[in-house]
Amino acid sequence: MKTLKRWVVILLLLLVVLITTGFSIGNNIDVPLTFGPMTLKARPLSLWIISAFALGVLSGLTLGAGLINNFRLNRRIRQLEKELLLRPKFGPAEKD
Predict the structure, then answer these.
(1) Which residues contact 41 (CB under 8 A, 6 or more apart)?
(2) Per-residue confidence (pLDDT) for residue 87, from 0 to 100
(3) pLDDT at residue number 43
(4) Higher confidence at residue 91 or residue 62?
(5) What's the total number of domains in the chain?
(6) Mean pLDDT of the 1-13 span
(7) Whole domain around residue 22: which residue ranges?
(8) Residue 6 burial class via C-beta count within 10 angstroms: exposed 0-12, middle 13-18, buried 19 and up
(9) For residues 45 and 28, is the Cβ–Cβ distance under 8 A?
(10) Which end of the chain is more exposed for a tag (fewer CB within 10 A), N or C?
(11) Helix or strand run (H / E) with residue 48
């Protein structure tokens, strides 16, 4: 099963590379990017679009990883709190 999963991932990555290459070839017109008063040098349109997509993926993965980890930690805290409630209560320690 792991081998099949590995091949599927490799094929998907290869497909993404091929689609990106085709997209880059089709959108090679130089376009300047302007953010208010700041203007960046003219670069191919495909570079701007692929860069925006990559930044979105990276920021989504970063935020998503934090949310998933936070969810797991909260679930573990609730589980441990339930275990504490079920644990028998002990009185004060006896003195010798």
Answers:
(1) 32
(2) 83
(3) 92
(4) 62
(5) 1
(6) 91
(7) 1-29
(8) exposed
(9) yes
(10) C
(11) helix 45-86
Q: Is residue 93 part of a domain?
A: no
Q: Which two structure tokens, joined as six digits, stand for 41? A: 């040098």
> Is position 18 within any domain?
yes
What are the two backbone dihedrals, phi and then psi, of residue 92, each rounded to the nearest 5 degrees? -65, 150
Predicted TM-score of the model (pTM): 0.56
The answer to whether residues 28 and 44 touch, using CB atoms and an 8 Å cutoff, is: yes
pLDDT value for 90: 72
Residue with tokens 């070839």: 25
**Which residue carries 């609730």 as its tokens?**
78
**SS3 helix, strand, coil % of the chain, rounded to 5?**
70, 15, 15
- Residue 95: pLDDT band with limits 50, 70, 90: low
Q: Three-state DSSP class for 39?
A: strand
